[in-house]
Every structure is written in structure tokens, then in C-alpha cells.
Amino acid sequence: MGKTVIVSIQTHKRKEALDITKTIKDSIGDVKSGLVVVYVPHTTAGVIINEAYDSDVADDILEKLSQLVPYSGSYKHLEGNSDAHIQSSMVGSSVSIIVENSKLMLGRWQGVFFMEFDGPRRREIYIKIIEG
């Protein structure tokens, strides 16, 4: 039961955090209660829940990940994007959000962010809505 919505987005920078909360809200439609799973099917991108009120928070996360895993290093992968693979592994590829009364049960300041680590690219986001 439930439905899957596939959303296509375009990123514009190599490292970028895009707030996709509204996209997810729009995808749940008239679902009163259930669960939403947001999944990013890419090895150099991810998804997180964090503060959306102040966009500097997402920028700080990207900056710190770049410090922890720099672009250049002694990587074996020859495509030049090893940092992106490692950073996406650190943040993860999915989040789950409870839906109640047709609303995402996020905290007051929380939002959902698509995390681009190897852009700019055309990307997909899979949103699975499970009613229950």
C-alpha cells in the first residue's frame, strides 16, 4: 500500500544543500496518517534532516564535511570524486518522517535537505508514502 513519487531536481554547485521540505509536503497529498521515506539513489549525494530556519546551518555542515574529507587526497578512486562518495556515505541516503493529520512531524526548526556532493547534476529523489 502507498505510492512512490519520483522528483527530479537540478543542482547548481559542486557542494550544495537544497531544502526539499516543501516538495515532500506537496507529495503526501491527502494522506492523513502514515510514514514518508525519502531516498536518494545516488552514490555522491544524500539526504538529511536539520535546521531549516537558518540556512547557514546547512552551509556549515557542507563546509565541515569538506574539511573532514577534502577534495584532494590520496584516494584510489580515479574519477576525482572520492570525497563526494565518502561524504554521501557519512550523511546517508534516506530519512523517514511520520505523517499525522496530513502534516510532516518535523520539529519547529527542522527541514529536509538534499545534499549534493558532486554537482552540478540532474538528480532524482524517491518519496515513498505509506498510509497507516
Which overall shape is indicated by the principal axes computed on the Cα atoms?
elongated
CATH architecture: Sandwich
Uncertain runs: none
In percent, how helical is the residue content?
10-25%
DSSP, total strands: 8
* Number of helical segments with 4 or more residues: 3
Radius of gyration: 15 Å
Termini gap: 9 Å
Helix/strand-derived category reads: alpha+beta
Helix and strand element order: EEHEEHHEEEE
CATH superfamily: YjbQ-like
The CATH class: Mainly Beta
Give average pLDDT, whole number.
96
Main beta-sheet strand count, sense and barrel state: 5 strands, antiparallel
Oligomer: single chain
- Number of structurally distinct domains: 1
In CATH terms, what is the fold-level topology?
A: Jelly Rolls
Brief sketch in words of this structure:
23% of the residues lie in helices and 39% in strands. With 132 residues, it is α+β, with helices and mostly antiparallel strands.
Structural commentary:
Strand 5 (94-100) and strand 6 form a beta hairpin. This protein is an alpha+beta fold and 132 residues long. Helices cover 23% and strands 39% of the residues. It has one domain (3-131): YjbQ-like (Jelly Rolls). It has helices at residues 21-28, 56-68, 82-91, and strands spanning 3-10, 16-19, 33-39, 45-51, 94-100, 103-104, 110-116, 122-131. The chain is elongated, with a radius of gyration of 15 Å. The chain has a 5-stranded antiparallel β-sheet with strand order 1-8-3-5-6, covered by helices on one side. The chain is built from 3 helices and 8 strands.
